Automatic annotation (TrEMBL):
Residues 35-84 form the L,D-TPase catalytic domain. Residues 1-25 are annotated as: Disordered. Pathway: Cell wall biogenesis; peptidoglycan biosynthesis. It comes from the Bacteria. SUPFAM superfamilies: L,D-transpeptidase catalytic domain-like. InterPro entries: LD_TPept_cat_dom (IPR005490), Transpep_catalytic_dom (IPR038063). This is L,D-transpeptidase. GO terms for molecular function: transferase activity.
Amino acid sequence: WDRLRAGTSRPTQDELHPPTTLPLAKPDKRCLTGRVLCISKQSRSLAWMVDGEVRSAMDVRFGSQYTPTRDGAFKVYWKSRDHH
């Protein structure tokens, strides 16, 4: 463990929050109120937004032509911290 820690540096803020590779798409109007994950297939990005302000963003990948990602608005209906 000590050897691993000795060879590991503390990440910088830029390393912890790298910019997205592509520019973010203009958010859908549904992303402008509340706390939402706004996902764009067009810009291949995911943005965590609070009342229309982007708090965090990252690049994402979607399904292939044989297993495409569905379009639509979805809700989290169940969460479990210790689900196995």
